[in-house]
Amino acid sequence: MKKFVLFIPLVIFLGMGAFLYKGLFLNPKVLDSALEGKPVPAFQLERLEVPSEVLTEKDLPAKVSMLNFWATWCPACKYEHPYLLMLSKRNLLPIYGINYRDERALAIKELTTLGDPYTANLFDKDGRLGLDLGVYGAPETFIVDHNGIIRYRYAGPIDQTVWTQTLYPMIQQLQAEAKVDGAS
Amino acid sequence: MKFVFKIMMVCTSLLFTLTVMATPVDTYEFKSAENQQRALSLAHQLRCPQCQNQNLVDSNSPVAQDLRLEVYQMVDSGKSEAEIIDFMTSRYGDFVLYNPKLDSKTYILWLGPFGLLILGLFIGFIFVRKQRIQATESTTLSTEQQAELDAILNPNKTTK
């Protein structure tokens, strides 16, 4: 008993040590999204190419889809653009572009010159939807399931590694879930 | 001595430069000075999601600017502090709070130090009590011990 008591400080020290050691390897830049598990917030945004056409969260299809925040002022978006084009050719899921705090004319020009990977493009001029989704930069990508619930958020450009290791497995899993629920 | 003085000068000048940091200025008109004070103190308590070591008032990033204005408008429209903080955390997570909330995830953070303090006091108390008990224990010797002591103290008196 007496011996055991003497070891208590050591145990506490080791416990705290392990805890703090783990903390050394956490990336403070990676924030967990507060919105995972919540429905897509209400929005009313014009389509980028067709200002007269207003889309809301109800216009999102009842299947697994991706929301991708992008802008012409964002270099990382240019970096991920070719990969998104490739994904859209594979036709795996609808990809909605949200043009974030951008100039309409510039954005349209960029899509016509570089190609348009998006199923539809929303024009979020003042970043309101971005703010409601907790976006703090671009590009950011949200994976939404067939019930319109946000299931995953990825901040940063999508490339081969991120896609094969993180996003695609998750999308496949959600599509399987959707199949079970009877939605396509 | 001169060298020490120089170092002190450098340090004080550094101190002054730290206090003259520019903060972005917003041209937002508050409805009242009281609102302004409340909004600014709130914005000071919220962390910018982009520049993570700055608060909303200090940060220059567009996101911080938006959130700042959002906070100002919410204060002006008479929303309570809890409502505004909820607005922020529901979008950006608990991360934006400089003062973490008290919930199951942060109990150890808030209560851990007190726990350690109590443990320390407890250990100290036990230790002191032990010493007291040892000090007050009777110091009379049994007859064998007395004999042994005598043998040690007066080795020439031993019967041979």
Automatic annotation (TrEMBL), chain A:
InterPro entries: Periplasmic_diS_OxRdtase_DsbE, Redoxin, Thioredoxin-like_sf, Thioredoxin_CS, Thioredoxin_domain, Thioredoxin_ResA/DsbE_sf. The keyword Disulfide bond applies. One of its GO terms (cellular component) is plasma membrane. GO terms for biological process: cytochrome complex assembly. It is found in: Cell inner membrane. One of its GO terms (molecular function) is disulfide oxidoreductase activity. It comes from the Bacteria. SUPFAM superfamilies: Thioredoxin-like. It is a single-pass membrane protein. Residues 34-176 form the Thioredoxin domain. Keywords: Cytochrome c-type biogenesis, Disulfide bond, Redox-active center. Pfam families: Redoxin. The keyword Disulfide bond applies. Its main location: membrane. NCBIfam families: dsbE. Belongs to the thioredoxin family. DsbE subfamily. This is DsbE family thiol:disulfide interchange protein. The lineage of its organism: Bacteria, Pseudomonadati, Pseudomonadota, Gammaproteobacteria, Alteromonadales.
UniProtKB/TrEMBL annotation, chain B:
Residues 12-153 form the CcmH/CycL/Ccl2/NrfF N-terminal domain. InterPro entries: C-type_cytochrome_biogenesis (IPR051263), CcmH/CycL/Ccl2/NrfF_N (IPR005616), CcmH/CycL/NrfF/Ccl2_sf (IPR038297), For-dep_Cytc_NO2Rdtase_NrfF (IPR017565). It holds the Pfam family CcmH. Residues 1-22 form the signal peptide. One of its GO terms (biological process) is cytochrome complex assembly. Belongs to the CcmH/CycL/Ccl2/NrfF family. NCBIfam families: cyt_nit_nrfF (TIGR03147). This is Formate-dependent nitrite reductase complex subunit.
